[in-house]
Amino acid sequence: MGKEDIRALSRAMKLPTADKPSMACLASRFPYGSMITRKALRALDDAEEALRRLGFSQVRVRCHGEVARVEIPQQEMDRMVSPDIRRRAAAALRKAGFSYASLDLDGYRTGSMNALIRRSRLVRRSCVAAGRQRKG
């Protein structure tokens, strides 16, 4: 049974969760190898909830230490940078425990933390290739 089957059954049963966006585990918001604490998970949950209350349909707050990297759909970017919403979002992220906030210009996408893995593999491969070239 897949996600669409579950959504169809939820609609048939008139459940309010039928069209609710899927939610990945909060641990997926941290870079691989990070120490994850309850406090950090709570900060992420609080930050995402605050942004949802501001009306954003799909939100991911990625934790990079003191920096919260916010991902929202491309079509909602203009709204995020409006002065009132930007001020309220920044205040909510500070209240959640982040010192800095950044808006990811690529927008919301699943698996964005995996880019760090792909990049590190590419760097390793190019370093190995460069080492071979120097030896040859």
Description:
It is a single chain. The protein is mostly helical and 136 residues long. It has a domain at 26-111: Alpha-Beta Plaits (2-Layer Sandwich). It has helices at 3-12, 38-53, 77-80, 83-96, 114-135; strands at residues 60-64, 67-71, 100-103. It has a 3-stranded mixed β-sheet, with helices on one face. Strand 1 and strand 2 form a beta hairpin. Helix 2 (38-53) packs antiparallel against helix 4 (83-96). It is globular and about 45 Å long. The model has no long low-confidence stretch (mean pLDDT 83).
Care to give the gist of this entry?
This protein is mainly alpha-helical and 136 residues long. Helices cover 49% and strands 10% of the residues. Strands 1-2-3 form a 3-stranded mixed sheet, with helices on one face.
What are the main properties of this structure?
three-stranded mixed sheet; mainly alpha; globular; 136 residues; Alpha-Beta Plaits
Q: Which secondary structure elements does this structure contain, and how are they paired or packed?
A:
Layout: H1 3-12, H2 38-53, E1 60-64, E2 67-71, H3 77-80, H4 83-96, E3 100-103, H5 114-135
Parallel strand pairs: 2-3
Antiparallel strand pairs: 1-2
Helix pairs in contact: 2-4
CATH C-level name of the domain at 26-111: Alpha Beta
Structural class label: mainly alpha
- Tell me the CATH topology of the domain at 26-111: Alpha-Beta Plaits
Q: What order do the strands of the largest sheet run in, or round the barrel if closed?
A: 1-2-3
The CATH architecture of the domain at 26-111 would be 2-Layer Sandwich
Provide the succession of SSEs.
HHEEHHEH
Q: Catalogue the unreliable spans.
A: none
